[in-house]
Each structure stands twice: as structure tokens, then as C-alpha cells.
Amino acid sequence: MSIFIDRSTRLVVQGITGRDGSFHTNQMAAYGTQVVAGVTPGKGGQTFETDEGEAIPIFNTVEETVQEEGANTSVIYVPPAFAAGAIMESADAGIQFIVAITEGIPVIDMTRTYAFVKDRGARLLGPNCPGAITPGVGKVGIIPGQITTAGPVGVVSRSGTLTYEAVNQLTEAGIGQTTCVGIGGDPIIGTNFIDTLQAFSDDPDTEAVVMIGEIGGTDEQEAARWVKENMEIPVVGFIAGQTAPPGRQMGHAGAIISGSAGTAEEKMKVFEENGIAVARRPVDIRTLIQEELGH
Amino acid sequence: MDIHEYQAKKLFRDAGIPVPPGEVATTPDEAEKLATNYGGNVVVKAQVHTGGRGKAGGVKLASSAAEAREHASRILGMSIKDLTVKKVLVTPVEDIEAEAYVGVLIDRATQTPMFMVSPEGGVDIEEVAATNPEAIRKLRVDPRYGLLPHQAYGLATFLYDDPKLVKQATRIMGQLYQAFTQNACSLAEINPLIVTPDGEVKAIDAKVSIDESALFRLPEVAEFRDLDAEPASETKAREAGLSFVKLDGNVGCCVNGAGLAMATMDLVKYYGGEPANFLDIGGSSNPDKVVAALEIITADPNVKAILFNIFGGITRCDDVANGIVEAARRIDIQPPIVIRLTGTNEEEALRILEDAGYSAFTSMDEVVEKAVELAAQA
Are B259 and A212 within 8 A, CB to CB? Predict the structure, then answer.
């Protein structure tokens, strides 16, 4: 089992003919994901040829992909100015799981988009996220498939390459993953830590979870309290940004310490208070997971 | 992006909020002229991107144009929290009967814009929140409908009892929300919102931060960027499409991805060193970006060692290795460079780097320890 992505995932790529969209469509299809359609307004009726010679039909609207190809999941690679609109188009078309990779969507636009998506009962992952991968089954987004392997650990993170680092170390140590989920580095995101932890908690195959957070906001702290109350499987945590100065945005729009709130120190303390083992270095994540799993 | 008080006041005026007149001077002469025009009774206010201007001596009352000139000559060029004052705002003195606080920000917990208002204005709102939280009213706004009339009225009645003041404040709440959304603010604050003896409600200070992601559609606001308010290295980094923050340590860091970059800096600290910067070169392995990154890092005289940490997922390690070799050919680099690359095409990358005479590693801990050691020896 897994979360968010399984064998029933039928993916539509919004922005399939763009540079990033076409590159990652190839990667996702080669990994075995069922990419059933693409959307580029004005290019409906054409097809996208993958490197492996598969022809993916292109449509003008997401609604058509739902009707014609049974799409139930979408991934968005369109530029920031159009990405919020693309998310809402997906939600309106009845897509259940929407993954927004795009970085740089104005936050004020996301406040409206988030409310819109929620009203329609869809799940949004991101924006500004690497997406999710269920090893051996499928991937939606940009997480490199070769660093993952199937197994019992769920991974949830606000970061991209730091997640790859942790996942790669798990894989090298022979510890596989149920699903790896990047929730995104923006202040407003569709799926937060608690949403993802809840999903892992409900997944019978996930035996432990790695939670990788960073400075800014209170999502990690709330998640830690939720873990203590609700989770039966062990959680190992890591927080990036112990050396980040207050008031400065560290790459991700959401990675900023406001006043004295949202520091790495505060988050690690709340983790420990709520029974989450804290890794001091990325390499310790693997060791702590091994201990939790009794390896 | 933080903007100056005088710029924030322009946005507020454009939205219809009553703001007293005021103009910016860059010399004592200009300040004196402005003060003369305003009748001599003015406030001279340092325009820098930090709080605590008053405590630092950057805000002064003058009762004559000559005094305004004196204040301006003292304030211009002074340093407030490491920022040099290059401009002062000259604005007429207002008589104050009451001071309130009105702010709008993005509340991350509820993912909505949120108002915070308090009848206790003119002081640090975080202090009010800590000592007297009852004096603050918060209101979440549904971003799809905006601030509704009864909500604006509710906020205004929390500040004032007099219906005449409530009426003015209600209008200002709506105008502030409009300024907030139209200019894609992450924060818009009036502190204080004053009541004059004539019963007028006015904004006499303004603090605004703009969401950088929205600047593409706000050309006039984008012009507000003050290059003097940031280190030259950060300007250069932004122009090169790099995410960079200067710090005080001696280990220069060049990493792909923001989370990994932060984790790398933390590891430098873990092994007893201090990072000189945060730098995310992003997913690209374009040699031009690597060159720009190395130019920025080596321009900092504190840097005694340079550390690359690259996780090749989509990025190919051999591309980055070629970028580093190419960059080193183009610019003169004094501090030693240590490189960690892992992931896609790592063997090829390690061969390229070793052929060019670099120490290359595949373990993040090893390379960070090495960089800290080299920086300490220098």
C-alpha cells in the first residue's frame, strides 16, 4: 500500500509541452506512471511522443481529460502567473489529487486558490514542491525514481534535494519507502504535515515516518503535538535552518523566522517534547529509523 | 521585499487612506527646504529597512527649518543596525490624542489574510501580544469575498467608541485591505493610526513588505527596491537567479536546493565551523550560474574555504563538475574548494574533478568536516 499515488492513478500533465513539463513527462512515464493525457491550451488534438515512443493525447482543457481519458490526478508545470488558474481548473474538472510543482505563485493568489480547492473536495499538494513517489508504482512530480525503493517507511518533507539526500541514505541502507511526499516550501500549501501524517497513519504498510521540516511557521510544531495524540507508529524528525538568521528568507518563500517564531531550535524542542526522535545531522535520520524499526 | 515608510505611505495614499503629506530628502539642504514648506514643525525620519529607528536616534522632532536641517545632517549617513541612512522623510508634526495599531498579514496557520487591531498603538505589537493579549483583536478574512462591511465595522468599534471615529476607521480598514491585496503584501501595518484633536483619523507611520513572487505584475512596486538596503553580493545573486543570504562565517557554501543548503550550513556549525552564506544554485548546472556563485562567494574576504554540496537527482553531477572546472578557469579563486557530489552520473563527475586536481567526496559529513578544517587552518 501507499498514500496519494497507487496503481489507480491516471495522470494528466498540465503544461505538457513546456520545457519542464515535457522533460518530466518522460521521466514519469519511464518510471511506469500511467500518464493518460496532457493539457496545453491551443494544442488540443495533438499528441506528445515520449522518448520510449508512447503517444500521449493532448487536450485544451483538463475537463476533457477527465471525460475522455478518466484522469484523476494532475501535475502542474505551468509558469507562476498561470499556475493558480491551472490548479483551480483541475479542481473544477473533478481531479481528486492535484500536484503543483511551480515555484513563485503569489501568496495572495494561493489564499484564494486554497479555499477554492478545499470547497471542491480535492487534495492539493504544493505548490513549490517536488511532488510524490510511490516506489515501484508511480511518481507525480520531479523526485528522481532511482534513489527510492519500496519498503515500510513514509517520508514527508518541505524540501526537495534534502529529501532526496535522506531518501537516498535510507535506500542505500536497504530501508525502502511506502511513499515519499514533498509538501512544498511556500507559506500557503495545500497539504500540510498533519494531512500527510494522517494518511501514513491510515496506511497499513507504513511502519515508521521520517518528517523533514525547516524554519518558518508552526506547521511542524502542530504536527508534533498531533503525532503524540494520534500516531502509533514511530516518527523521526529533522529540521533544517539552525544557522539561519531571523527575518531572512532562506530560498523557500516560507523559510523565514518571523520575530522569534519558527526557529529550528523551537521546532526540535517541540519534536522532542512530543516523542519524535530528532536527527541532528541528515545521516542520523537513517540511524534513528534503523533503531525504530529494530534493524 | 521590505519597502521604505515613504513608499508604503504612497501605496496607502493611493488606496485613499488619510496620510499626512511628506517628502524625502537626501541632503540637509533638501530637508531644510521641505521643512520650510511645511512651516518648520516637522518630524525627520530615517528611511531604513528596520524597526527601532526612534530608539536609535533616527526619528527627530524639529520646531524650525534650521533645526530640521541639523537633524537631517546628523541622521543622514548614520548607521542603524548596520544599515546606512541615505534618505530621510520630512513630514509635518501631527497632534495626537490617541494611537491605535492596525495590521494585515498572511496567517500561515489558517492560510488566509488576517487583521490584527489594537487600541494600544505606537508600540511594538509583539509586546502588546505578550503582555496584554486582550488588547488585540484578530480577524481572518475569507480571501474570496474580501473584508466585508460588518467585519470592517467590527474592527473599527474595537478601536473607538465615537461614531465619527468609527466611521473613518471602518473606511480605512477596507482601504488597507485593498492596498494589501492589490500590492500583494505579506504585511501592511499602520502603527500608529492616530486621532487628532480635530477628530481626524490618520496613518502617521507605515510598514509594508511585498511578496517577491508578485513583482512580475506590479512594475511600479518593483521599482521600490532599494539596492542600497542590501549587500552588493545579494543584488548580484538575485540578478544571476541565485538565492543568496550573506552571513558572517568563513566557510563559503554552494548547494543545490534550499533545504539541503540550510542543512549543509547547519552541518558546518555542527563540525565547529561557521557558514559564510546561504546559496542555492537551483536545479541548473549552467556553468554561468556556477561562475556567478563563485564570484559572489570569493568576493567575501572572510571566506577561507569553499564547499560544494550537490545532490544530483534531475541535475546531472557531471554537468555541475564541468561547471566548476569551467568556472575555475574563468576566475581566480584563492580559497581551497572541496566538493561533494552524489547521485546521477557521480562517477563521471568525480573523474572530471580529480583530473582537474580537486578533492571530491561522496559523503556530506566528510566534505563538511574537511571544509571546516581547511577554513580553520587558513
Answer: yes
Query: B213–A80: do the CB atoms touch at under 8 Å?
Result: yes
Angle at B301 between CA B295 and CA B307, to 5 degrees: 60
**CB nearest to A187's CB, from B108, B216, B278:** B108
The alpha-carbon gap from A161 to the nearest alpha carbon of chain B, in Å, equals 5
Give the active site residue among A10, A123, A158, A252: A252
The cell numbers describing B129, all together, are 501580544
Q: Which of A220, A227, A223 is nearest to B259 (CA)?
A: A220
Catalytic-residue membership of B6: no
Residues on chain A touching B260 (C-beta within 8 angstroms): 159-162, 164-165, 240
CB contact under 8 A, A81 and B217: yes
**What pLDDT does B37 receive?**
97
C-alpha B142/C-alpha B138 separation (Å) is: 13
d(CA A41, CA A51): 23
Percent of chain B at pLDDT > 90 equals: 79
Confirm or reject contact between B240 and chain A (CB < 8 A).
Answer: no
Q: In this structure, are residues B177 and A108 in contact, taking their beta carbons and an 8 Å threshold?
A: no
Length of chain A: 295
CATH superfamily for domain A11-125: NAD(P)-binding Rossmann-like Domain (3.40.50.720)
* Residue tagged 534550499 (cell numbers): B258
pLDDT in tens, B276-321: 999 998 866 677 888 899 999 999 999 999 999 999 877 788 888 8
At A133, which helix (H) or strand (E)? strand A131-134
Q: CATH number for the A143-293 domain, one of 2.70.98.50, 3.40.50.261, 3.20.20.370, 3.30.559.10?
A: 3.40.50.261
Q: Which of A33, A38, A39 is nearest to A8 (CA)?
A: A33
Report yes or no for ipTM above 0.90. Answer: yes
- Nearest-5° Cα angle at B293, B292 to B295: 65
Domains located in chain B, CATH noted: 21-92 (3.30.1490.20), 98-222 (3.30.470.20), 231-377 (3.40.50.261)
How close does chain B come to A204, measured CA to CA in Å? 29
